[in-house]
Amino acid sequence: MNTCQLERIEETLTSTLFPLHSYALGEIKNHRCGISVFYPQTVMIRAIDFQQWQQVVNNPLTERELCVLKMLVDGKSNSNIAEELYLTVGTIKTHVRNILRKLDVTDRTQATVLALRSGLVD
């Protein structure tokens, strides 16, 4: 038996989750709490520390950079991104370099994790 406590503004929802338990699934759907319907014991956590949040806020990504970041999160290569956006691979490399610099991370994996945790992309 797993207990998941989900906090919302002015409200706390506590559900005991059993695999495919109809009441719990109803609560998940009604409150959109980020719990997987297929694996209800799994909770999605979106959290970054204050320093990372400041980095994201102080260095906003352009619309194009957000588009490229979404494609990075989807696991696409530079050449796939370039092909989809009708740009050169060199241009995509520049966008990726700018994304890494603005997010203050060293690689695509860190950028992906930060993007998902901060809510920059879904």
How would you sum up this structure, described in words?
This is Two-component response regulator. Keywords: DNA-binding, Transcription, Transcription regulation. This protein is mainly alpha-helical. The protein folds into two domains: about 1-45, no CATH class; about 50-120, Winged helix-like DNA-binding domain superfamily/Winged helix DNA-binding domain (Arc Repressor Mutant, subunit A). It has helices spanning about 20-30, 50-60, 65-75, 80-85, 90-105, 110-120, and strands spanning about 1-10, 10-15. A two-stranded antiparallel sheet has the order 1-2. A hairpin with a 2-residue loop joins strand 1 (about 1-10) and strand 2 (about 10-15). Helix 3 (about 65-75) packs across helix 5, helix 3 (about 65-75) crosses helix 6 and helix 4 packs across helix 5. It is elongated and about 35 Å long.
